[in-house]
Every structure is written in C-alpha cells, then in structure tokens.
Specification:
By secondary structure, the chain is mainly alpha-helical. It is built from nine helices and four strands.
C-alpha cells in the first residue's frame, strides 16, 4: 500500500492519485456507495471502473476491487458497450496500471478477451495502432485471447471473490506460484 504520512501536518498525501477517483474510493469506504451502486450511464464509465479497480489494487483493497469488478461485469451486457477508443483506454489501463498477472486477474482477463473479440474493429482505429506501438505487451496478450471463450463472470456478492494481493503473490513484478 502507498504510504505518504507527512509528520508536520499529519496528513496523508497521495500526489499521484487522481483526486476524483480517490473521492470515489473514500465514499465507498465510508458509505459503501458511489459509481459502484449506480447503473452505468455512458460507455466511458467502464474506463472509470477499470481505473477504480486499479486504484483498489494499489491500495490492496480487495473488497473495493471486487465491487468494481462486479459493477463492470453486470453492466457489460449494456447495449452501450465500450467504443473502440474506450477499449484502447482499457487496454492501456490493463498494461500500465494493473500488475502483469493476466491469468489471475479477472478484469485484465476480461479486457483482453473483449478486445480480442473486437480486433477487426480496433484495427481500423489509429489510436489502437499507437497503443500497440506504445505498449507491445498488449499485442502479446491479445494474441493469446483470439478465439477464446469469455472469461468467467464476476460473482453476485462482492465478498465472494478473493483476489491475489501484490505483496503475497509477486516478487519483482513476477507471479509466484504457491508451493
């Protein structure tokens, strides 16, 4: 977890966190509500949910991550699915903000699966070509998902899913298998 306690003003400082996303996190902690309790109104909110999920990963807030994942998955049948630009944003989040543990992370898995199903559409978008140039790892993951079935859906109750935490499963960015 990030630690930024300033001794002189007894305040926590997280200068690299988006204040708006952090507000959602605090609201969830204190009230259990926010974007996580409302139906999605726009496809770009899938990107917000993925960013919130990544924030939960950085703070090792497993229940928050599970709530984000549940909201993401239950809204994915919405006819206003992510546009190609939103998918590019989701791919960047998966490559840049989430640990490289695709096989063990349900959101990352779903993002790559969905992008692979939309590959023909994505290839027509200049932004997608730029994303692949900037993040070559995305291409490697997409190749593995072409033609595969949809990953398992999120559970109904947010506490039912146990996510791996970075501190117990990785060393130097690599996944450690249990003995």
């Amino acid at each position: 977890m990030l630690s930024a306690l300033e001794p002189h003003d007894k305040a926590l400082q997280y200068p690299y966190e988006d204040p708006d996303l952090f507000d959602f996190f605090v609201e969830y902690l204190y009230r259990g509500s926010s974007i996580l309790s409302q139906p999605l109104k726009h496809a770009s909110q899938f990107v917000s949910l993925a960013k919130l999920y990544a924030l939960g990963d950085r703070f090792e807030a497993e229940n928050f991550q599970t709530a984000c994942l549940s909201r993401y998955m239950e809204n994915f049948n919405n006819p206003d699915l992510p546009s190609e630009e939103n998918i590019c944003d989701l791919l960047v989040i998966a490559a840049q903000e989430l640990p490289e543990r695709t096989a063990e992370d349900p959101l990352t898995e779903h993002i790559f699966w969905y992008a692979a199903t939309r590959l023909t559409d994505l290839q027509k978008v200049d932004l997608f070509c730029q994303v692949l140039c900037d993040y070559p790892v995305i291409g490697r993951h997409l190749i593995m998902w072409v033609g595969r079935e949809c990953p398992q859906r999120a559970p109904e109750k947010p506490t039912a899913l146990v996510l791996l935490t970075r501190s117990s499963t990785t060393r130097g960015g690599r996944l450690l298998r249990p003995p």
